[in-house]
Design a protein that fits this description.
Distance between the termini: 27 Å
Largest sheet: 8 strands, mixed
Shape: globular
Order of helices and strands: EHEHHEEHHEHEHEHEHHH
Strand content: 15-25%
Number of helices: 11
Length: 288
């Protein structure tokens, strides 16, 4: 991948104190539930008192739309942040969910690689922007979590997300080609780890669009669990019409219909994510 270069290796261990915990939701395949998971995991984390920022890195801007952010309210976007024209705080928009904010995206992001592709720091633009996110802010306005909604491709935007993140959360659709796509993603994560971000880990894999009545869904889940073991979350996100309806109302499904099967699944997923976060913080610093 041309955007991952050994030339960055000398700069790949720079850290900034006071960072939020940064999770990227990534899968090069489209339609697997990245955006839905980012929105609803962010909502669940905010509901328990975390201060959450979703960074929309998809030029389609579905995370922004799904949280009710009108395109007319995106005068400053993640495109401006990555080109260096604005700090990340300037792109942040308040959502209807308390303690959940979003840095919205626009279609301008689709041309970013052409604009900054020759810059030496091109893979670290987002990392550096997040590094300044909590600087000189009033108490209670700092973010404890940043969730990055990646585009459905392994391009410079996704590499920026991986270079900036502590861990990757992978939504994986219960379909025939799931393992093939997962192998490609894991190779990219390993490339990023070896050249850009040595601390990057796989936080977990969440199976989405699961249908218990479908033999293929059950077989895919079994195959992924055999391949990835404990990295696969116990929670599976079912096919659910309420999950599909919620974005058209500009709401997370947790707000649109708290009692539906999709909402209940995302609440269980959030519980698992939080428990893994506690385990990570409790583990010895030099643990593998």
């Amino acid at each position: 991948m041309t955007v991952i270069d050994q030339e960055y290796q000398e700069d790949s261990t720079k850290t900034t104190p006071g960072h939020p915990r940064i999770l990227a939701l990534a899968n090069q395949k489209g339609g697997v539930g990245k955006t839905t998971t980012a929105i609803n995991l962010g909502t669940a984390l905010a509901a328990i008192g975390e201060r959450v920022l979703i960074v929309d890195l998809d030029p389609q801007g579905n995370a922004s739309t799904g949280l009710g952010i009108d395109r007319r309210d995106r005068a400053c976007s993640t495109y401006d942040v990555l080109t260096g024209d604005a700090p990340l705080r300037d792109a942040v928009v308040v959502t209807a969910v308390p303690r959940l904010h979003i840095a919205a995206s626009t279609m301008d992001l689709s041309g970013l690689e052409l604009e900054i592709g020759s810059a030496r720091d091109r893979a670290f633009r987002l990392r550096d922007a997040i590094g300044e996110l909590n600087n000189n802010v009033s108490p209670g306005s700092d973010y404890t979590y940043v969730l990055i909604d990646c585009p459905p491709s392994l391009n410079l935007l996704t590499v920026n997300a991986m270079a900036a993140s502590d861990a990757i959360l992978v939504p994986l659709q219960c379909e025939f080609f799931a393992l093939e796509g997962l192998s490609q993603l894991l190779q990219t994560v390993e490339q990023v780890r070896s050249t850009l971000n040595p601390n990057l880990t796989i936080h977990g894999i969440v199976m989405t669009m699961f249908d218990a009545r479908n033999n293929l869904s059950n077989q895919v889940v079994a195959d992924v669990r055999e391949f990835m073991g404990s990295k696969v979350y116990d929670t599976m996100i079912p096919r659910n019409v309420r999950i599909s309806e919620a974005p058209s109302y500009g709401k997370p499904v947790l707000v649109y219909d708290l009692k539906c099967a999709g909402s209940e699944a995302y609440l269980r997923l959030a519980t698992e994510v939080i428990q893994r976060e506690r385990d990570i913080r409790a583990a010895p610093v030099n643990a593998a």
